[in-house]
Amino acid sequence: MKELAIGNKAVATGLWLGGCRVVSSYPGTPSTEITEFASQFDMKRMYCEWAPNEKVAMEAAIGASIAGARSFCGMKHVGLNVAADPLFTFSYTGVNAGMVIGVADDPGMHSSQNEQDSRHYAKAAKIMMLEPADSAECLEYTKKAFELSEEFDTPVILRLTTRIAHSSSVIQVGQREHRPFATPENNAEKFVMTPANARKRHTVVEERTRKITAWAEDTPFNKIELNDSNIGVITSGICYQYAKEALGEKASYFKLGCVNPLPVESLKEFASKFEKVYVIEELDPIIEEHCKVNGIDVIGKEAFSMEGEYFQSLIAKVVLNEETQIKKIDKDLPSRPPALCPGCPHRGLFFTLKRLNLFVSGDIGCYTLAAAPPLSMMHTTICMGASISALHGRNKAYAENAKNSVAVIGDSTFAHSGITGLINVVYNQSNSKVIILDNSTTGMTGHQPNPLTGQKIDGEMSTSINVAMLCKAIGIEHVKVVDPNDFQQSYSVIKEEMEYDGPSVIIARSPCVLLKTVKKNPPFTIDRQKCTGCRACMRIGCPAISFKDNKAEIDATQCVGCGQCSQLCKFGAILTGEEK
Fold first, then answer.
1. Cβ pair 279, 302 in contact under 8 A
2. What is the pLDDT of residue 446?
3. Gap between the Cα atoms of 142 and 130, Å rounded
4. Residue 520 has pLDDT above 90, yes or no
């Protein structure tokens, strides 16, 4: 049966058809939908879960593999940093049943804090990496990755990028492969990585690398397309699609489906046929450097950028010196920068922090948007969970900073990697104030549940972690709960805690307004007779509020009746749905 599917759905289908039994992931754009689609299959035959973070997810998948079940864990590129510790050691131990690691890179940083290239990890950990170029290959490569994992006794990374993960093409859906459990191995020399055993396993890894490199020379994953041309192109993934669209038959192509290890002799033979050979790859010059170190003369980053995504007109310009005619609209269109949603509880909290004129050590999540005007209340953002540790370091460097600085962290991010930072605050006696933004979901990646919500990936309720009790158990004596939509309450509690000499946690608790379980209030309206045009209501930056003829207007299609704006109007011009 054929169907149209995005790359992430195709990967999930490949997991199912390939006999995968355990899926453990942490949501991260652009990888999230893999696990969401996987959970729609029979959970009794392919168990799926959201783990607290990527390290836990990988360790769970490793445990399943050693137990004899094919397994998978998924994450975005920066999540691989978190999972790197078990990844490098699992490269040494190898698998029992096949294990696939799905990693989605984000060239152009559509929803990321950097453009990290995950191919470095495959090279450094000395494990195989496959890179599909469309949805059909996403499915095919996922299934084949399990076989290769077992054949070469290695985990296999499946690398996607944003365009492959979220673009659609046709896939062929077949029957699930029946895979009996592999016999569990009680093999300490293989799976217990003491120094004595690890030294022996390193030898195994180097021998495995030689075998996989030989396999890469003539694997069908690497495809050559010869055309009547003096131009050769070596590429992979989405760049292959761009190159084909830009150059057509004016170039010949060596399309790499396996990007680690890379072949040598077959690339040399291909390159010898052409006057010019271009390496077209987004982000870092992984393929280019491999070619040059093996004596293959190629044109790479001296012609192409190290930054951002490529596109067809860029490739045509560089390779053929052809300018692409692009139609332009001769009108200035208004910009639409990302913003917190109307009614977002985070908006109220950051407005209060602005009133208090505090330094905000920020974290990863929707609330990072508070860095934009008019709130402008996010002063650092590093990585998941860093807000608490960074605040601790700031306050230890200069003790007086504790009087005017706070850390903010979402509920899912707190469970991911914030708890250990808070333990450090208590253990090392840091006078740091932490605000946990508890909106009852993992908002930025599409409303996945997390350990603090108590709901599992399939909607089944489980144990909900009581964050207030957890903080007290760690050793935080001052734990307060506020409604961030109530400006006066939030202001009073935060101001009071800033004067307290010791670690403190404030839980700003209000659910995300986009959750289906959240009841929306009738939209607010403006009494134009009372409105003075003072623009005080604009200070919170709500997209539902605008100005027309020097009077405020509220868009009824956007307003959710949160009441934040009405707390700013001194003239009673903002009316509830019942008052109008």
1. no
2. 85
3. 9
4. no
Distances (CA, A) of 107 to 51, 161, 239, 418: 25, 7, 11, 27
* DSSP H or E stretch at residue 233: strand 231-236
Q: CA-to-CA distance for 24 and 319, rounded, in angstroms? A: 43
pLDDT at 517 exceeding the cut of 90: no
Instruction: Give the whole-number percent of the chain exceeding pLDDT 90.
Output: 86
What the block records as the tokens of 223 is 């495809």
DSSP codes, 49-99: EE-SSHHHHHHHHHHHHHHT--EEEEEEHHHHHHTHHHHHHHHHH--SS-E
Element (H, E) at 422: helix 419-427
pLDDT digits (tens, 9 = 90+) for 374-420: 999 999 999 999 999 999 999 999 988 899 999 999 999 999 999 99
* Separation between Cα atoms, residue 227 and residue 250, nearest integer Å: 7
For residue 566, what pLDDT is reported? 93
Residue 223 β-bridge partners: 255
Among 129, 128, 173, 175, smallest CA distance to 9 is for 173
Between CA 479 and CA 468 the distance in angstroms is: 7
Q: How many CB atoms lie within 10 A of CB 22?
A: 22
- The tens digit of pLDDT for each residue in 475-485 reads 999 999 999 99
- Higher pLDDT residue, 186 or 274? 274
Question: Encoding tokens for residue 110?
Answer: 């559509």
Token pair, residue 135, equals 């949805």
List of residues 6+ apart from 321 with CB closer than 8 A: none
pLDDT digits (tens, 9 = 90+) for 416-453: 999 999 999 999 999 999 999 999 888 888 889 888 88
Phi, psi for residue 440 in degrees, rounded to 5 = 65, 25
Residue 325: predicted pLDDT:
77
Mean pLDDT on 145-171: 97
CA torsion through residues 519, 525, 531, 536, sign:
positive
Contact criterion met (CB below 8 Å) for 220 and 198: no
Q: Output the pLDDT for position 200.
A: 96
User: What is the three-state SS of 512-575?
Assistant: CCCCCCCCCCCCCEECCCCCCCCCHHHHHCCCCEEEECCEEEECCCCCCCCCCHHHCCCCCCEE
> What is the spatial distance between Cα 267 and Cα 195, in angstroms, rounded to a whole number?
38
Nearest by Cα to 159 from 263, 217, 77, 215:
77
Residue 577 in this model has a pLDDT that exceeds 80: no
Q: Measured between alpha carbons, how far is 20 from 28 in angstroms, rounded to an integer?
A: 21
> Residue 222: which of 259, 252, 274, 271 has the closest Cα?
259
Instruction: Answer whether 364's CB lies under 8 Å from 384's CB.
Output: yes
State the pLDDT at residue 580.
Answer: 54
DSSP string for residues in 139-181: HHHHHHHHHHHHHHTS-EEEEEEHHHHH-EEEEE--PPP--PP
CA–CA separation, 320 and 307 (whole Å):
21
